[in-house]
Amino acid sequence: MMSNSGRLQVAVIGAGAAGLCAARHLLARQDVFCPPVLYELTKRVGGTWVYEERVGRDEDDLPVYSSMYRDLRTNIPKEVMAFPDFPFDKHLPSFVHHTEVRKYLNQYCDHFGIREHIKFHRLVESVRPVFSESRQGGLTWDVTTSDATGKGHKTTNQFDAVMVCNGHFFDPYIPPIAGLENFKGKVNHICSALLFFGMLMHSHDYRVAEPFAGKSVVLLGAGLSGMDIMIELSEVASEVTLSHRQRPLTCPLPRGVRQAQGVKLINEDGELVFEDGDRAKPDVFMLCTGYNFTFPFLSKEEVGLQVREHCVTPLYKHLLHPAFPSLFLIGICRAICPFPHFHCQIQFALSVLDGSFTLPTQKQMEEEMEVDMQTQLQKGTALRHILKLDSEQWDYNDEMARLGKFKPLPPFWKNLYEANKVFRAQDLLNYKNYIYQVFSDHEWTVMQKGAE
């Protein structure tokens, strides 16, 4: 799908938050870029924010990619969760229900005229680099798609660049625990599931707390989802154990919740053995262990992208392939404030494509990446945590803005986000009831704390 106008044609894979953000900025630069083409597997925008009661397969017999659960509220205040150029409605509380985020993304989509550029129910089967001396830069991309429902023919279109925005909260990571196969059961549909002794599930399939009433549950993993689900289940389960390898949580926990070390192995009778020798025999063992990166449409032989221990290489600035600098993987960094992070990555990507930022040579990028990798490893950062930016995200976002020559995030973004992390660590049970107010690029305050 090449343009005769000299403008660049960009394909965007996914119409979740990152894909919508990519389309918004491409549409704002129609002097350089043709209107984008977005390929979305489902029939809705919003990605993981589209709640689906079913697990496994949806009403169209497509895989359920969303990991949203019914009562989820955001763990980031709306004041810093929003795209910088499109705030949430002021009347909303700071921590909003997931339905409000989905509504927000639909409003964003319509406000910027994105919907007409989305091809729904399109499965991206392959994204292949094509070298052509007739094109500037010598590289284009063949994107082959098919109807996600299995109807219709495959089509292949050609693009100057590809932005991969397919998300990474849908392919559950199952840790290699000895004896894990001793849990036989699985949930086929959460609303009709009969939970019985020896039930193994991943938090990807968690939807509501009611089926766990009176059950003993061990949750493996103390990330944000694990702690959120712990709080929900504490209201109905007979016993909840939070198993993890982090330092013990020191904040108040729900009544009846206990902490345990990581799970070392599982005996044949379904008994869990923790690292310190403690044991438990729960009705339900739920893995809150995160997700794998998966890019099935990118050929390992042709593109050479490697995914190992939750790390994706080679990617310059965690974003673009040095051998194929018109291929961008948006939003694979972890422990970030996602929407503004997408906002910064995408504008930097456009500065690469429009030539306002000149990339180093492939060799220079590869050398810089190797130095950065070795520096992280020598500091003691495990390979699986290389993409975990956390507080380093702010310097990263500022660097994107400096190199891409666009307006950086206001200072309050970092300060409020980091303060919320402290409040969450100290007041896990109540922090979502805090209400924030932003006065300027530098000033904000907490208007209300404590329980509802």
Notes on the protein architecture:
With 452 residues, the chain is of the alpha/beta class. 23% of the residues lie in helices and 21% in strands. The protein has nine helices and 21 strands. The strands form six sheets. The protein has a six-stranded mixed β-sheet, covered by helices on one side. It has a five-stranded parallel β-sheet with strand order 8-15-9-10-11, with helices on one face. A three-stranded antiparallel β-sheet has the order 4-5-6, with no helix packed on it. The protein is globular.
Helix-strand blueprint:
Elements: E1 10-13, H1 17-27, E2 37-40, H2 78-81, H3 98-111, E3 118-120, E4 122-131, E5 139-147, E6 155-159, E7 161-164, E8 199-202, E9 216-220, H4 224-234, E10 239-243, E11 257-260, E12 263-266, E13 272-274, E14 279-280, E15 284-287, H5 300-303, E16 306-308, E17 311-313, E18 320-321, E19 324-329, H6 338-353, H7 362-378, H8 393-404, H9 411-426, E20 435-438, E21 444-448
Parallel strand pairs: 1-2, 1-7, 2-3, 7-19, 8-15, 9-10, 9-15, 10-11
Antiparallel strand pairs: 4-5, 5-6, 12-13, 13-14, 16-17, 18-19, 20-21
Helix pairs in contact: 1-6, 6-8
